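Tutorial handout. Part one gives the primary structure; part two gives the three-dimensional structure as tokens.
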Amino acid sequence: MFAVVFDMDGVIVDNGEFHYLAWKKFCYKHQVPFSKENFRKTFFGRVNEQVLPILFNKELTKDEIQKLGNEKEKIYREIYKPELKPVPGLVSFLNELKKNNIPVAVATSASPENVDFVLNGLNIKCYFDVIVDDSMVIKGKPDPEIYLKATQLLKKAPENCIVFEDSLSGTKAALDAGARVVAITTSLKADEHKYAEHIFSDFSEISLNFICTEIFN
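Part two.
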């Protein structure tokens, strides 16, 4: 039996634009230079511990990172709350996995507060057997730690897990963990993905039958 692991931002929800708007507002307040291209290429899919020292161009203490990160994430939740919705086809796919007793996890660089915001806001927390957030790992993506942690908690070998991701740092992390990798093109175009085995626009194109016959055949 295989297991399925979902990244959250850009996979469960298509929220990249809202994270960008939150970072833009945050950087404006702190008078820090910031561009959409820089966000997309350098920061997307990574944890605040990686992003903030680069943004401020200096070393930051753990407390400073925590405070600044909480500030930015609060801005993000305020901006995104009225627009919160799942990626097309996600809920139907989760239902299909649940009915067939397929173990399911979330492995995300997001904070516990953001995970609760999304999963509770969409009323889908019940579908996930395992949740791994940024507080549970030391190294952020593209390090494979988060996916190794998720597969360990699922009690599955990485090669028996399929990971859905949207960023290059995420797909590389999943690939280096030894998992099967499927990219969703919410954040990058199909031709920009180089670590994924399969590429889809959303979950309306994905079924349990496809996973069984084309990935774990």
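Part three, for discussion. The first strand starts at residue 3 and ends at 6. The radius of gyration is 17 Å.
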